[in-house]
Hints:
By secondary structure, the chain is an all-alpha fold.
Amino acid sequence: MDNTIVAFVNIFTMTTEVVIWGLIVWAISSWLVAFNVVNTRNRFVSGVLDALDRIYGPMVRPIRRILPDFGGIDLSPLVLWLLLRGLQMLVPALVLDSTRLLQ
Length: 103
């Protein structure tokens, strides 16, 4: 039973790590588009950017509604990153501690 729970905790941690790295790629690519470094007329680039927007747009939309307007600065990816990092630390600790209490 312990090995199964540890395996699920490791899968959760790896999944959140992939989501966090994707979020970083999405944020950096949005900056590159804003500063006209990336040509969005390229089909591959526009496809990748569209896929990243479809994945991460719904995640940051509720955060954008809550955060005040900071002018041209969008802090919602940073807030999402902090939330994901917090979950990445909190969930495994809670799960592993609760399994120790049950034994």
